[in-house]
Each structure stands twice: as C-alpha cells, then as structure tokens.
Amino acid sequence: MPSLKEIRAKLAAQENKSKKTFAPGDSQIYPHWNIAEDTTAGVRFLNDADENNPYFWVERNLFKFPFNGVKGSTKHNVEPSSAEVVVQIPCMEMYDEKDPVLDEVRTWFKDPTMEDMGRKYWKKRSYFFQGFVNEDPMEGTEGYVTPENPIRRFTISPQIFGLIKSSLMDPDIEELPTDEKAGLDFKIKKTTKGSYADYSSSTWARKESAISEEQLAAIEKHGLYDLKSFLPAKPTENVLKVIMEMFEASVEGEAYDVEKWGQYFTPFGIKKVDAKDANATAVVEDKRAEKLDVKSDDIPFDTEKTTEEVAATVEDKVEEVKEEKVEEKSSGDDKAQDILKMIRSRQKA
Question: What is the pTM of this model?
Fold first, then answer.
C-alpha cells in the first residue's frame, strides 16, 4: 500500500505533466484550443475595420487536397516521402466567385457511391474574428505571453460559429454583441466528447457590459484589423489552372510534386519555392498535422506558423480523417478513375 506522501507525489507529477507550456513570442492569434478542459475563455468581439463588411467576422473557405507523399527534388533539396500530405487551396467562393473545383465536386453528390469522395474534397470553413480576451484561463501558464496589443485575432471553427450565429437570432439579445456600451462577452468553454475537444457548451454572457476605458484606448492606439487582409490571396486565372491540375493529381492518388507546384501551394512543413530564385530550396520538416493535439480547432492557411497555431488543424477534421482511413483503397482507386473521366470529359466539352 503506497504512503500518502507517494500518492501526493504521483498526483503532483500527473498534474505537471498535463500542464501546457508555451514558447515565447506567440502570435496575436489567441489559441483558445489550448485552454484546459472544463475551463472557459471570455472574449469580447469587436467590429471589423472594413465598414463595408456587414458582419464582425469574415469567412474563410479552403480545400484540403491530399497527396500520397512528396516527390523528391534534388534542385530544391526535398527528400521524397511516402507519408500522406495535405495541401490547402483557397476556394473562389470566398471571393464571391464560382469555383471550378466546387462545381465539379457538387456533381459527385448525385451519385451515392461518390458521396464519401465529395465530402473529402468539399470546402472547409473557418471564421476570423477579433477582440479582447477578458477572461483568460491560460494566463500565468509557463511561457504564455500576452502581446502588447491586447486586440487578439480568433480563428473560429464551424462548431463555435454555429453557436455564435444561432444566438444572434435570439430576440432576447437586443444590442449588437460588439456594442461598446451594451455588448456581450462570448464564453468559449472547452469540454471533452469522447476523446476530442467539444465547445458545444459555449455561449454568450447573460449580462451586458461596456468596453473599459483601457480597451477603448487600445483601439485608439492600435486600430482594428481589416479581417479580409488575413484571407489568402485570390487566385489568378493562371493559378486556377494549377489548382485544377493539383485537384486531378490528388484525386488520382499521385504524390505532391514540388517541382510543379512548389511556387504556388505547399503542404505544411515545405517552404514555398521562389520561382525567381534558381537556388531556392524547400525543406521538409518531419511534422504532420495528425501528430498534433487532436483536441485543437482549425488550421491556419500560412504553412509557416507556430505549433500552437498549426494545432488548430484537427478538431473539425477528425471525422474526415476517420472516414478517409476507413475507405477501402481499391474501391477508392476505382472511384478516382471514374471521377477523372468525368472531369476531363467536361473540360473537353
């Protein structure tokens, strides 16, 4: 029978092991996915600097093209790899324009046997907000640094956004939650459902409150963000052709080719190749999204973010990963060939 001293030592060791630590120099992005289980972060959203935006958020739409590894390139110092990689591609609907990939994927849902492939290549949504963190459960955590500018950016998953949106339709909320004098804090509460993070208990505060004088001074000093400036650049006509080429290669189960696409879009861990620099290199890091915390929230578009930001990759994608791994490879190959025939026949028409 262990002594009380030994039990306490073991419990203390477990508690220390579960505590998160942060590298110095964290981004302005508030990593709410890193708050401890059963804790709440209280945030006060602010309006967008873009007065033409009717909302206080912007929506980001990305495709996730999976590739069967990476083709090596001596020219760019890339080591070949057979591990699956995913490349993020902007969807044109984010810019209120038709998207050729999405137009193609939509037709797949007419065939029940192709629905899994349709979900795999369907656009993935996330939302950009900004505001203050009025209640921060990570404050005081070793290595956690609050930036000088208290106006933080938030990358919000569809699960949390659904709660924000539905609450805005509540007739009991009389003022805009971003109102300086009678707004509301949003309480991001993290729990666990199964083995994954769950934010379904998140909600607006019950009482209205005013933004503090100190916060008003911070807005005056730093200014508000133009949220659309954090969206990926709109693809040109030439880049759209590259995207379609990558789309077909992904469906066909090919490897990512840094020689062809390295100057356009790259997987996490591969630096973008500078087309003007003959000696440009792309370094493959042994990091993959599925190795990160599966209780995190969303993935940033930039492939050169910190681990905390990249940890946002998985939460809303876990079910997709499950479906993809369960899928039989042989039947997947058959579907891919059928889909490619459809794509190419439309292009010739």
Answer: 0.74
